[in-house]
Amino acid sequence: MKIPILNPDSHSKIGWDILILILTIAITIIIPLIMVYHLPLSGFLLVFDILISLIFIADILIESHTAYSDQRELIRDKEKIMNRYMGMAFVTDLLAAFPFFMILSFFQNPLLLRIALLSNILRLLKLFRVKRTIGRIRNSKRLNPSFIRMSLLIFWILIAAHLISCAWMAIWEDPAALNPLNAESMYLRSFYWTVTTLTTIGYGDISPSTNLETIFVIIIELIGAGMYGFIIGNIANIIANIDIAKSQYQEKMEKVTTFLRYKNIPHDLKVKISDYYDYLWESRRGYDESSILQDLPKPLKTSVSLFLNRGIIQKVPIFKGANEEFIKEVILNLNPVVFTPGDYVVIKGEIGYEMYFISRGSVDVVSEDESIVYATLGAGSFFGEIALLLSAPRNATIKAKDYCDCYSLDKETFDQILVRFPEFAEKIREMAEKRRAETEEKQKKK
Amino acid sequence: MKIPILNPDSHSKIGWDILILILTIAITIIIPLIMVYHLPLSGFLLVFDILISLIFIADILIESHTAYSDQRELIRDKEKIMNRYMGMAFVTDLLAAFPFFMILSFFQNPLLLRIALLSNILRLLKLFRVKRTIGRIRNSKRLNPSFIRMSLLIFWILIAAHLISCAWMAIWEDPAALNPLNAESMYLRSFYWTVTTLTTIGYGDISPSTNLETIFVIIIELIGAGMYGFIIGNIANIIANIDIAKSQYQEKMEKVTTFLRYKNIPHDLKVKISDYYDYLWESRRGYDESSILQDLPKPLKTSVSLFLNRGIIQKVPIFKGANEEFIKEVILNLNPVVFTPGDYVVIKGEIGYEMYFISRGSVDVVSEDESIVYATLGAGSFFGEIALLLSAPRNATIKAKDYCDCYSLDKETFDQILVRFPEFAEKIREMAEKRRAETEEKQKKK
Amino acid sequence: MKIPILNPDSHSKIGWDILILILTIAITIIIPLIMVYHLPLSGFLLVFDILISLIFIADILIESHTAYSDQRELIRDKEKIMNRYMGMAFVTDLLAAFPFFMILSFFQNPLLLRIALLSNILRLLKLFRVKRTIGRIRNSKRLNPSFIRMSLLIFWILIAAHLISCAWMAIWEDPAALNPLNAESMYLRSFYWTVTTLTTIGYGDISPSTNLETIFVIIIELIGAGMYGFIIGNIANIIANIDIAKSQYQEKMEKVTTFLRYKNIPHDLKVKISDYYDYLWESRRGYDESSILQDLPKPLKTSVSLFLNRGIIQKVPIFKGANEEFIKEVILNLNPVVFTPGDYVVIKGEIGYEMYFISRGSVDVVSEDESIVYATLGAGSFFGEIALLLSAPRNATIKAKDYCDCYSLDKETFDQILVRFPEFAEKIREMAEKRRAETEEKQKKK
Amino acid sequence: MKIPILNPDSHSKIGWDILILILTIAITIIIPLIMVYHLPLSGFLLVFDILISLIFIADILIESHTAYSDQRELIRDKEKIMNRYMGMAFVTDLLAAFPFFMILSFFQNPLLLRIALLSNILRLLKLFRVKRTIGRIRNSKRLNPSFIRMSLLIFWILIAAHLISCAWMAIWEDPAALNPLNAESMYLRSFYWTVTTLTTIGYGDISPSTNLETIFVIIIELIGAGMYGFIIGNIANIIANIDIAKSQYQEKMEKVTTFLRYKNIPHDLKVKISDYYDYLWESRRGYDESSILQDLPKPLKTSVSLFLNRGIIQKVPIFKGANEEFIKEVILNLNPVVFTPGDYVVIKGEIGYEMYFISRGSVDVVSEDESIVYATLGAGSFFGEIALLLSAPRNATIKAKDYCDCYSLDKETFDQILVRFPEFAEKIREMAEKRRAETEEKQKKK
């Protein structure tokens, strides 16, 4: 029979993984109970045992035909897969799958039968595979890693509590007080004791009396204390990481407010600055665009920037006729700036060195005394493009109406880009010349 | 009836929110007690129940007419508000407000009556609104976020403890020891047990005996341990964040002292450096001005800088006649420097490249052998302005008298600014020429 | 009587502060015991009470004549001191000092006498001063802040435990089991119960039975759990801060080793790099000199750099005759570099652009085939100075013998400095000319 | 007898250290038991005691002849070693080695004999040496520091638990309940009590009754709570440090995804970016090569870079004939870049300014419409070298086939390097001239 190489991220493979995961959990719960209650492995349980063996054997076959990924590269070579499987999980998978009980029970030897019963514990080796399965499911579903980590923590704690409870039942001699308990109560009381101890609550209504019990309790307490410390450490770590963006932002704000207090900055300026930080937090969790994009490799950065700005750039008259490469360079050199409501973006008469593109929010073009609003420019608009041609004084005052996310492009950067596009630079120079002539004419008229 | 759209930050809306909050807490305390003690819903309690229903219905109306803010923008559009409310809190608000008891009790059917009693639990759904209300109150009052976070933690723990206590009362069978307890003692003992368990103290004087009790205790213990870990994690996180400025500063100091020890720096220099760091901490929590201002957008940065320095800049003779824009540029390019007592700011004969403005503290103008103090300059003074015109040697020694926060402006930066203000640059050049002539004349005289 | 203004850091003031601190602790221990055991305030205790009153009144006088420091500036103005004291600690100090008992006991009225006894609690208000006193002692003794923080934590816990124990004694009714206990045992058992509860151990051998006790225990448990969380949070924070240098260094190392593993770097290179990091850690806790010095203001930086390097700089022949300012500039522009054993610092024939000063360790001047060691240069030596004059090929190979801390000075920086010292630049140019002539002559000979 | 100076890292010295470590642990376990059980120091125990004395005396001799390392330098000077040993561990080592029992037991005086027995405790002073020994073993074996730290924590806790158990046994009066216990059970119960208390579980089945016991328990509880806090703090710290690379990486990813969500970036671009970060994590734990190498001193950096790139550089035709120094400079100025599958590395017709070397992954050389794949270049290939000679348009489109780790070398950097190698620069200029001629000819043909 020729089995094809499976893709580890395929739906059917993930499904199989989940089945194995559920079966592993089932046997982890059932097998210790069988052993503690000395349940006979017959009838339904025997069928279950045989079924488990068969499924686990099938799993070995499937695992040895599943491709694996090495640094984002999917290895589908059969020999490599085999070598890797042999070196990693094959032995435990085989021991977990081996039908010891079926084989040994043929001999009808009571000693062998006891060994056969004990051999069931080997099935629990399959627990080593839980982490891998979870890892695969996480990869294919893109689940929140903190959630996964928390769930796994709870899962392992419950598994550990179950195993400890079963062990405690096996060695617990509680003659006077609670006897005779039926099986369920016995397990319940044992699980109750385990949880009470592991959580360091320690009611003390169940406590060890024999030496064996005492030793067992000491070991569980030591494990429990470590485990509890581990849980608290993990929760503290998860909390610290959840809040990391927020706390970095608060740290920044605290710095600024301390500084402002120290310098006796007037109240309204303080409120304005504090509102600005609130806006940064609400609109982008305090992150700053340029630092985020600079980590990406250039092609990805270009893709993101193009997506964000191509439309607006192509509308600018002076960029008409520029080729694709030029537009790309311009977009990669845009500089994000934020204006808070009431900020002067451009003041009439000032000499301008940059043009602006509005990405979000709106600005008012106002008269010098701010009494008349000539126009309101919204997202997708641009202004100040003359500054890229010649350093003339601004011919209008522009004031932010609300919080504005803009991009600026300054003359210096623009000139540097032009150097690399000589034909287009020529065209721009002509445009500037024409503009200058117009401006001079206007000034003469005045 | 036409209801106007309400502002979520208005005083009356916040007042209503607080009323709802208090009522929510009240019903969270009262309803579980009613159910555990099987109190008849008649008389005062019935009035209370009807009142709650009415107020909660009013709340639905008010909520569906309250504007909401989306990234600092207040959305007042009725349809959008409706859609948002429907998609978020409407169902829970409706279930919490619905007068099940009143309606079902009409039928006089004992089964329906029991359902009616149970339906009271639905009122607790209003608890989901606490977070939102607290958020709104925080926004309008600018409360300390760590304090809010701590208070909410305590609030939820007490609510949880109350609910757990009521549940424990309902299933607790304690026949021999403490019976018959009156209602208050019963609740007290139950609350005592809950707190003892949740804090992992676990005296063990009250412990489960029936299976139901055991299961309940296991669940509470698991929740309690998680909750306790969560509390400790939160407290650890809050402590870490409170001290973050201090610990960053201590880290910096530790670096420096390690380095100084390694290099066998003499003791008095070490004390001087350590005092300098103490000063930084006491005066500005170790933060450095330029790094704080650089995060702000340019208009805000300009406002802050202008507030801090305009007065002093305009006093400088060589800046007389400079226009507004020029002054702004100068101010944005000031560089904060700190001098410790005894530091030489300027030494006679050295060639100077920067001028200084004193923002805090004072300096002495001393003779070359430091025996004579010609003058003491305090906050608001400036010196070394000649350096911006020509690179002549300093004509006096200036020594810091105490810790001085100064701003320096260096010739290079100044020249770069002048490039953008050609008319003013011309004026400055003349001044420099004149100065040079004077200096040369002086030197000839000597 | 005219009291002079005291210096808060003077030895006698610190001594007085310590006395008040000890008395505060004493009354915090004694007064609750007096109240719980209903000890009569007569004899020795009465003398003690009067003494405390007198000392605390004296303390008010002293405090109101102690200068205080505001941002490193000592405020000695009497009115300012008074205003500050009135606004801060005066009321609590007065209440703590007021001899209520003495005054009220004159009236011989049993009710007033009881009030007088209760008024003793007001003395505990002095506890609010502990933090201030500790702060002062710390400032004058420069104690380790982590140690102080830990000690204060322990101090407050013990004080809290004592107060809780006394309160528990007052309300504890333990008729059957442990009665009649003598006073010491009673306190001991109570303190034992407090500690057992606060540490969340909760043996349960002492547990509440009356409603009052139950309420008290609930409150203590809630406080205790919070306190315990606070302690753990603090310890975790202190541990994190103690290890911050180490963990930053380990983080760096981990980065590097991960990278080396990923790139399959040969083993000996890996060991060399790992040894280099060990050296950095052992010699300077992983800190890097230039980043440390750059935080200091220029005069302090100059002082440190001058201390480290003046001697060696003045020995260099080409710097002979340079003035003080020039030497300072050179020193401020030295660049620290580390060489690991076997590194080639300079290779014969390479064109050199920097000179080196050895600050620690030694280098070998070797022949081209490394068979002959011409010389060994130790700390305080320098080499490669010709590179500052002209870009000639190196005339020897120099190899680090052990870990070498060096400073390099490159030609570019040197030329920039020269620009500011035109006369000296002239001298250097002549030297270079002469050198070039010599070299050319040599090459012609060859 | 002349003892040679030993190397502290030699195998035999480490072996001896381990022997001493094991003996120290043994006596720490045995001596308290001897004292609690009042075992007679005769027979086997006497031999053991004498042996310990002899070995510890030998250890003093060995220690005083072991070189020590001071900042990576091995100090072998006998006098220095002696001074250092005298000032550090000699006194404790001597007290631990001194055969008090043997000497005092000669006198047959019962008082002296008791003192002799008590003096055994001095042997425990050897515990102070454990840290040093572990430090040495760690240095020679390069063990994981987190593992060492965890193991030491467990080791000290177990030692502390043992000592506390023995002390509790000595003062514990438990007349009614558990008497008469045999020695082993006694110790077991005592150890059980210690662990139950230190882990804050506190069953309460064993609790103090006498005053002495109560005081002892209070002290142990206070220590235990602190210890437990310390353990949790440590575990939390270790967890935080283990995950530091991961959490920094997650933080980065979170920033990017927040930004992408805010800007409504299309889904496929988001997946591409998220995959890119996954690749960075899987291939290099998110670290970035240039930032890692920049921390290394230049010779080490050169060694690593040469190892990584020499082969590939020498294959480039235009570098043929370049000397060693030139190649080094080029390698140090390579800039690592990553391309994700499908990225355009070079687009036909674009003007190129850099050449690329492939270090890992492969790229396709495709026709303008991407229909034909001319060639696939794998690791060790390079392309775009013409861009270093002249700024001609690219003559092919090159597209990343899978994740590609490349190095780029841009024309500007290349030109800067050439300045320092004038002869080679001449050669390169000729090559460029020839190339230009060829290109122009080609274009004429077209």
Automatic annotation (TrEMBL), chains A, B, C, D:
Residue ranges of the TM segments: 18-37, 43-62, 83-105, 111-129, 150-171, 215-240
Biological process, per Gene Ontology: regulation of membrane potential
Record-given protein name: Cyclic nucleotide-binding domain-containing protein
GO MF terms, alphabetically ordered: voltage-gated potassium channel activity
Keywords attached to this entry: Ion channel, Ion transport, Ligand-gated ion channel, Membrane, Potassium, Potassium channel, Potassium transport, Transmembrane, Transmembrane helix, Transport, Voltage-gated channel
SUPFAM superfamilies: cAMP-binding domain-like, Voltage-gated potassium channels
Domain Cyclic nucleotide-binding: 318-435
